[in-house]
Every structure is written in C-alpha cells, then in structure tokens.
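Recall that a protein's primary structure is simply its ordered list of amino acids. Everything else, from secondary elements to tertiary packing, is in principle encoded there. The following example makes that idea concrete.
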Amino acid sequence: MKEVFSNHLLQFIDSVDILEERTFKDVVEIIGKYLEKTLDIDYMNVMRVTNDGMNAFGQSLYDIKRNQTITLSDKMRDAGQMPFSFQERTKLWITSITEEKKLLDEENYKDWWCGVENIPPYKDFDGQSTRKTSILIPLMHDFRTNELIGVINFESEKYIEPTKVAQETLLNLAKVVSKAMRLQRIRSQFHETTKGSISRLTKELDELDTFKLTKPKLFLGYPDKSEDDVMGCLKSVIDDNYSKDILLSDWKDNPQPKEITKEIFDEIYQSQYGIYYFSEIDNSDTPYAYIDNKNVIFEAGFHKGRSNSAPNCLVIREKDSEDIFFDLYTFNRIEVPRDKSGKLRSEMFRKSLKEALDKMLM
C-alpha cells in the first residue's frame, strides 16, 4: 500500500494560517506516533533557531524535548550530531558500521544518505544507550531555500537501513515540521506585535490630554479692568458662530467661587481651547494706554504648559501696550483694531477674530 499519511499531514499544514505552541507540539507528537508504528522510531526531537539571524555564526538552537538552548560555535563536534547536521546543512541516516553495535559504543559511523564522513560522536541525551539508528534532517524555509530554521532527529533501537519510500516520507514529514515551525513563529511574532501595540495604546492613553467627546470647553480669560467693547464683541462672535460647537467657560459666571484660583485652573485644565485677553486699562504713568495682566498671562502659560497646546490658545492684545514677553510669541495673537479716537473697529475685529477662531477650532 502506498504511503499517504505524510501527504495528509502536508495538506493539513497547508490549510493552517498560524499555529499555537501547543498545537505545534501536537503535530510533532502525531508524527512521532506515526513513525513509531511504521518505521520503529522510538525517539523524535526538534531543534529550532531561536533568533532571527540566517547564518550559523552566532545562532542558538532551542531543543524542544529537553527544553534547553545550544549556542552554535566552531566546536560543534562537541554538541552532538543534531547541531552538526544543522551547521553542515546535510541530512544524515546514521548507523554503526556493523549491525550488532550500538551508536553509543561506536567510534565510526556509516551515513546511508549522503556518505558523510567524520561524523561527531553520538550523544545519549535521554538516558537510552541502546539506539542503533539516528536520522537527521535540517529544516529549511520553504520560500527562502537558503534559510535554515531548525533540525529534526529520529532514532530507533533497531538497525534500520533506508528505503526509498522511507526517505521520501521522512522528507515530507520534515516539510510538515518546517512549515509548522514557521507558522508557530508567525503566531509568536503576531502575539509580540499585538502586545507592543497594546502597550503603545496604553501609554498613549496614559499620556492623553483631557479631551472630551462631548462639546469641548473654551476657557475665556481676561482681567477685571478689560475693555467692555472688546469683551462684548468677543462674546457676541462666540454666541453667533460657535455656540453649537463649544461650551464657553467664563470664570465670572461662577458668582461665589469657594477657591477662585483653584477653580479657575480646574476649568483651564478641562478646556481644550482658550482665549486670553491680556490687556487692561493702565492708569499709571507708563507711556502706554494698556498693560498686560500678569494673572491672565499666567493662565495662558498654564494652558500651554499642561499639554504644549499653544495652537489651541488665542491671545488678544491692545496695540497701545507694552512689548509682549518673548515666551508668548508662539501663541496665535490678534491685536484689537481701534481708530485714532480709540473707538473699536468692531467689524474689522469681528472678522479677524472669526478667522482666528475658525483656524483654531477647525
């Protein structure tokens, strides 16, 4: 009867997209049970590359059965026949020279597959010293034929000479293990990528500035001695054009604040946008009609500093004012337009204000 089970395994593995570690080991176990029945194989083990490098130098092999790592080096003969097969990129069908001798007692071996000579000594890793046959096949990446991804080992207590069907079957099973190993690697990489994405999202959420999906707040900061014509025009523009899109936070709307400073800064922290009218009437002997209110400057600085959100702040100043602080140059600013008599040019102010708010709130 023609051997078909390895073809069934190939069809199965071709239908799979990713593989869990446990499922990968299940596939290896199924192959081991199958070969125990058909080829008297009583031991099977897989070693796989543990890093992303494609060359043997500097690589390590992870031994699945013994749960240990072997680092590849120039002294591969000391590590056993599995690493030797991997490093030499050669399949081996090893027996003693004579049928009676066990591998552990032999100094020279016969390779039935490729005729390789000077094979390293057999190492008894699992406490069984009675093995007479050891078959090793390097595992290659299907799509990149020069890439080694591991090596597989089959052993038997019987002296087994190869047949053509046995060799073809073992090569098919090596292909199954090779693809299963790659699918498990894909799953592991996918898992690590997903973990990394979740970690980045968590960090982003932790660092996320207060941003409500409800109507955003716009904080309005201004001094007690601000010009009524500017404030009236400002609130009118907001009411006429943005009342549906923003929630205006005016600190004077709270008639009896318990802690005015704390409540103002709580409002600023919860506001995505801010308008700060710096100027107040100057009744001192300075050459300017207006000075910048230090409290309002501080509020604007706090708004910017909490999230580096200067683009979300608009500063309004009177033209006849002292020089602005250098640190405030990064803010969007507009000057209050007045005629020679000091009267507000309301239409010009409304236009420039709306343009600035459209840009900030877009």
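The two ends are 75 Å apart (CA to CA). The chain is about 35% helix and 20% strand.
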